[in-house]
Amino acid sequence: MPPLLRIKNLVKTFEDNKVLNGIDIDVKKGETLGLFGSSGSGKTTVGRCIAGLERSDSGSIFFKGKDLQAMSRREKKKVRPQIQMIFQHPEISLNPRMKAFDSLVEPLKIHGWDDKCSLENKVEELINLVGLRREHLARYPAHLSGGEIQRVVLARILSINPEFIVADEPTSMLDVSVQAQVLRIMEKIQQEKGVSYLLISHDIDVLRKVCHRIVFLKNGRISGVENA
Amino acid sequence: MSYLNVSSLCVDFLTENGSVKAVNDISFEMKKGETFGIIGESGSGKSVIGQAILRLLPSNAVVNGSISFGAEDLLSLDNKNMRQIRGREISLIPQNPAGSLNPLLKNKIQVAEVFEVMGVNKKEGIKSVLGMLKNLLMKEPARILENHPHELSGGMKQRFLAAMCLSYKPSLLIADEPTKGLDSFSKKGTLDLFRHMKGEHGNSILVITHDLDFALEICDRVAVMYAGQIVEVGPVTDILQIPSHPYTKALLNALPRNGLIPLHGHTPSRIDLPDGCLFYTRCNLRSDKCGTERPATKSIKGGVVRCHLY
Amino acid sequence: MTGKIFRRKDMTISILLLALLVVVAISYPLLALSDPNAIDLTNKNLAPSAEHPLGTDYLGRDILNRLAAGTTTSLSIAAGVSAISLFVGVLIGCISGYYGGIIDETLSRIIDIFLSFPGIVFALAIMGFLGGGVINLILALSVVHWAKYARLMRGQVLSIKENEYVLSAKIIGAGDFHIMRKHLIPNSVATVIILATIDIGHVLLSIAALNFLGIGLPADIPEWGAMLSAGKEFMRTSPYQTIFPGMAITMVVIIFSIIGEGLRDIFDPNDTGGEYL
User: Fold this and answer.
1) Does B263 sit within 8 Å of A175, measured CB to CB?
2) Residues 6+ apart with CB under 8 A from A116
3) Contact C171 A142 (CB under 8 A)
4) Nearest to residue C143, comparing CAs of C85, C186, C70, C98?
5) Which of A194, B292, C32, C95 has its CA 20 to 30 Å from the CA of residue A16?
6) C12-16, C124-128, C201-205: which range is least confident on average?
């Protein structure tokens, strides 16, 4: 079976600084691939390229066999939402002027969900999945803890059923006990929905605990692969 | 003899929704030359303690209890004497090194400013910082002083601030979350810095952190905080290797290498505190008594613990 | 939010005064008590008296009556200018900051051009071209004012557009219009609104200045700046016809400055304590 996501010879330069220098990565369906590196190793750039926030200079990213960076606008609109991303800093991960509920249903509304009754059911299903309570949804992000915000973010992106999630240091700003909660929820989501993760982190203990495979990145190149 | 003595400290923040009990009846003491850690997760109230010691709390805070430092009672000092103690006697290495330096001023000028305020000759001050930078193993200290803050990396900024703090030889250093948000490489640098400060300068350091590994490496004794209370105090190896309190146990089990076992539930509301133990709803060793009666602190094996199990 | 506003005394007083002015501005033309343009040459240049509490001007018109009628003109011009220049400025600044690249280059240069003219001279030139009248005055002053809101807005948008919630919205598949409307504008417009509030006072001063220079509104429209300028010739003999309109303008400028400053404190997300707690 071909991999869900295949990165081939990815190269990215920022102002003479070769951040990525020929990266090849495969991620299978239902797999958690860890990407380890220190700051400046280019690991975040890999994630941003996959999510479409950055365009590589050369190389390709194949998702289900199709090159993401060579798609027509129309195709992109259909395929892009299947790849979602969760970020490092909970304090700016949600729009501070939107209640958690509105952030949660934003993707559903964008993708044309207007049936009020089933929207309620969908919200119920999502918050159960990530372990949030109704009362959390009535709050603004300023009144949610870091762990609660990351759960809202997870519920939000899960609402449009992505198959691939790029998680860029999702727990590095969280407390130890909350980190464990969030990572366990991500594991549960994988078991229930079969999503694949690219988990970017500088914490090797975390990666060894939750990943199937770990790719080590150093100075824009892959320096090693470890099977867990 | 105890050197910093915090006893029955309570800090409440008055807000629109009621008074928030940020710190609730905390007592601990630090000996001279000791590195004492306050470990807790965000919202546990640990940073409030540091601010209370330096009397830097916002105006809506109500402080009760006592904090004595040497012969002084810090909470009853007037502002003038408190200013004498701040910086000279007790110094703070802030949580966010980047935000603690004025981006428009050369590092040298920031240093000079500090000494000006302290009433020390500027040139001498700069000389002592230069010496301190060398001492903290920074390369090319003279060039660092000519740079602007943005030309320093995060780790260098932290060292620079530490050098500033150490250069007028405070007897107590408070470090607020020195490793927050750092990657493992920078963490190692911070650890080296603290080891050096501890070994070479013999400073008494109060480390406020959520980083258990860092605390284990650097602290002599630690206090573990949960929901505004200290749940246990003791030598660091005892606490982080054979913990007594169920919360500490759960915290250690949540570490990736110990199994990444999450704590269930939420911390209690700090406005309406429950009658019983604050950890009751999340504890898997609880009994009926825990739900109705708040445990008092008890002495066990060289420390104290706040739990009905002991 | 309302609690925060009324905990500040200066804010409360300013808002009450402003409310009073707005009531006068709206109700005065409807009440039509007496004609603010009624000329009475036998009673010209009078000092304040029981009959004319603020005196009369060089044509014998009652100053209090004209000041009250002028509230309508002055406030509606100021409101019109703020609304138009805010709308244009926020829109252009947001587009410029969000898209970047060549669009930003072009729009930024246009903003620079508008900012490089001295405001009053620019407005004067536009009025010379368009002719006098309330609508033209509003247009001319809007043309002068929008650019600084656009520049401020652009800066604000630049500082938040890489925030993770904006990136997340992009990845989710939100369109540019949605991102601007739901994420960028709500999170950056506060600063611009604060500036615009403080600026309302400046707008009033600009109207006064234009009228003072003789270009602006026709003489029969009661407006504070026009009254000030018309009275200047009688400053020595009958100073009241400049003093009272001048005081009215000053008062409104101060009211809006206090409200603007207060809004800045209230919108500041880092401000939890402060003097009003």
Assistant:
1) no
2) none
3) no
4) C85
5) C95
6) C201-205
Residues 6+ apart with CB under 8 A from B92: B50, B54, B165, B173, B174, B175, B176
- Strands A164-168 and A83-86, bridge-based pairing: parallel
Strand order in the sheet with A5-14: A17-27, A5-14, A58-63, A66-67
What ranges in chain A are assigned the alpha helix state H?
43-50, 73-79, 100-110, 116-130, 134-137, 146-158, 176-193, 204-210
Inter-chain residue contact A180 with B260, CB threshold 8 Å = yes
* CA atoms of B47 and B34, how far apart (whole Å): 19
Which of B173, B189, B136 lies closest to B53 in space, CA to CA? Answer: B173
The vertex-C27 CA angle with C23 and C31, nearest 5°, equals 150
Q: Does pLDDT of C271 surpass 50?
A: no
**Closest Cα in chain A, distance from residue B115 (Å):** 35
Q: Is C273 on the interface with B (CB under 8 A)?
A: yes
Pick the residue of B19, B51, B60 with the most C CBs within 10 A to test the interface with C by mutation. B60
For A77, the closest chain C residue by CA position comes to C173
> Given a cut of 50, is residue C275 above it in pLDDT?
no
pLDDT confidence of residue B71: 85
Residue B256 structure tokens: 């990736």
Gap between the Cα atoms of B58 and B42, Å rounded: 18
Choose the weakest-confidence range: A43-52, A213-222, B8-17, C80-89. B8-17
* CA distances to A8, C105, C130 from A13, in Å: 16, 23, 53
The torsion of the CA quartet B69, B70, B76, B81, rounded to 10 degrees, works out to -100
Distance separating alpha carbons of residues A5 and A119, to the nearest angstrom: 31
Task: Please check the confidence at residue C276 and state whether its pLDDT lies above 50.
Answer: no
Residue-wise DSSP of A155-221: HHHHTT--SEEEEESTTTTS-HHHHHHHHHHHHHHHHHH--EEEEEES-HHHHHHH-SEEEEEETTE
For C181, which DSSP code?
I
Which of A180, A206, A208 is opposite residue B262, by nearest beta carbon? A180
Query: What pLDDT is stored for residue C272 in this prediction?
Result: 41
SS3 percent helix, strand, coil of chain B, rounded to 5, is 40, 25, 35
**Look-up: residue for tokens 């973010």?**
A153
Looking at residue C85, its pLDDT comes to 95
Task: Kindly provide the ipTM of the predicted complex, given to two decimals.
Answer: 0.93
Nearest to B240 by CA among B253, B256, B228: B253
Task: Assess contact for B277 and B283: CB atoms under 8 A.
Answer: yes
Min CA distance, A104 vs chain C (Å)? 11
Mean pLDDT in runs of 10 for chain B (310 residues)?
85 87 92 92 88 90 92 89 86 81 83 76 80 76 83 80 80 88 80 85 88 92 94 92 92 90 85 90 89 89 88
Residue C274 is predicted with a pLDDT of 33
Q: C10-28+61-267: which CATH architecture?
A: Orthogonal Bundle (1.10)
Domains of chain B, first to last: 2-89+170-260 (3.40.50.300), 103-168 (no CATH)
Residue B190, by phi and psi: left (phi above 0), alpha (psi -120 to 50) or beta?
Answer: alpha
Q: Cα angle vertex B23, ends B21, B27, to 5°?
A: 145
Q: Residue C168 pLDDT > 80, yes or no?
A: yes
Burial class (CB in 10 A: 0-12, 13-18, 19+), A119: middle
Instruction: Between B142 and C108, name the one with better pLDDT.
Output: C108
Answer whether CATH 3.40.50.300 is correct for domain A5-227: yes
Q: Quick one: pLDDT band at residue A150, thresholds 50, 70, 90?
A: very high
B111, B164 contact by CB (below 8 A): yes
Q: Which residue on chain A is closest to B263 by alpha carbon?
A: A177
Helix, strand or coil, per DSSP, at residue B22: strand
Distance (Å, rounded) from C-alpha B159 to C-alpha B174? 14
